[in-house]
Amino acid sequence: MLIRRPRAVLLVTVLSGSVIRAQTPLPEPMPVEPVTALIDALRTHDIVGLNQPHGNQQMQALVLSLVRDPRLPLAVQDIVLEHASARYQDAIDRYVRGEDVPEATLRLAWEDTVVPNNLGLQAQELIRAVRTLNQTQPADRQVRVLAGDPPIDWANVVTADDLRRWVELRDAYPADLIRRQVLDRGRRALVVYGQGHLQRAMIEANYDTGPWQAQTVMSLITRDPKIRVFNAFTLLRDGSALPELASSWPTPSLVVVKGTSLGARDFAIYQQAPLGGQRMAMRDGTIIPVPREQWIERPLEQQFEALLYLGSPKTFTNEAVPATLCRDQEALARRLQRLRFVPPIEAKRLQQACSAP
What we know:
- There is one protein chain.
- By secondary structure, the chain is an alpha/beta fold.
- The protein folds into 2 domains: 27-319, Rossmann fold, CATH 3.40.50; 320-357, no CATH class.
- It has helices spanning 7-23, 34-44, 57-68, 89-96, 103-106, 108-111, 121-134, 160-167, 172-181, 195-198, 217-221, 323-327, 329-338, 344-355, and strands at 47-51, 78-85, 144-149, 189-193, 229-234, 253-256, 280-283, 286-289, 306-309.
- A 7-stranded mixed sheet has the order 3-2-4-1-5-9-6, sandwiched between helices. A two-stranded antiparallel sheet has the order 7-8.
- Helix 3 (57-68) packs parallel to helix 7 (121-134).
- The protein starts with 6 loop residues before the first helix and ends with a helix.
- Residues 1-22 have low confidence and may be disordered.
């Protein structure tokens, strides 16, 4: 005989089960050696996203270790660099294949980028590292460097609006490049880009992926659910962004965050929007602030698959302005001329660095 349980009993049972599941602690992530983990990810994913160093020498050392690893050409065919200008793709292709390219031409690939305060030193090191790696590889296993920065022609940049039009392409251009040169050709790529570009949804836009202004490289790529992406977030800030348990991890380490206590934390703990964390929305073509009570919470694991730990941010060091740039009066004047389009502090920093004894 079928025994019917009272609805009240069923409700208590269901609710009790929910409470029990909610109180079950999530496992802590397990740190692993990052270069091997990233190479394994490259073998099984179409795209692996890794933070562009932006002057951080610890991050640069990790990226160089990955690029110099002899296992890399067996796992990936392309490396997409944020701070390399697509205007000079042909020169980059010839150089990494081992051909002779005039230094005066090659250096423009990392100097003539859309971001005028980019020194380009780390892109230069990575491009040279790929050339060295390819010298040990057969022709059919050489790694290509794809320049992700839009092909700006600085000779035609006269006003701030001229520059803005190129800045607005800094996510759409590389996303289209990756689609055409990597995904449509059945290849795999390591994408070395700033973490703002690698977010699946911009925290600055309160995770609204509707407006074109709110798109990132990764939001555009992952519109196709068939694309397999492994995205690594790097802990570069101090304070609450650094989990207490990370102090026991080896340096460097990588942890997969999905289904873990770290992955469930609000992404805002790890990264905030600029301007004090203020979030913005697009309404009828106008950018307006989003009230604090309307800010959406989104777990880290919905933005990134993994977290890369490089040690305490207190130990980090940044690249310095090279003496060669300060001595090259023509190049220095050209850079200062371009810096007029960004906040004055950038030009002041460069002038102070070059005047220091």
